[in-house]
Amino acid sequence: MIIQALEKPFSICSFRQDAPVDLNKFGVAFFAHTDEGCSVICPSDEVPQEAVSRDDGWRAVRIAPPVNREMMGVLLDLAKIFASAEVSVVPASTFETMYFFLRSDGYLRALQSLQENGYKVEMTYLQGK
């Protein structure tokens, strides 16, 4: 299994619940809309002006796609590795990919921990819009 370290810094942003957020603006983004609010995780250089607040300082790794449902044990293993390295993590996924957003101050420590636990880590450059 290959873990891809993404080169871009990410931000977690909040928006008014009724804010028009155009997801087509983003190269990569994770969107959540609940009765409590609207949030987007996106590259820091793509944060829309409509954001009410933002939390910068996140980096990302992903399991090289495709990820399937049989890999759930591996996902738990990765979460344990990040916890042992004392790195804050926010997981997010699509149907075929799994991302882990890690606080920047622990990012290199997390990558080293992954390698020490037998995972191959490679840099991946995302295509932006």
UniProtKB/TrEMBL annotation:
It comes from the Bacteria. This is Uncharacterized protein. InterPro entries: ACT-like_dom_sf. Gene3D superfamilies: VC0802-like. It comes from Candidatus Scatousia excrementigallinarum.
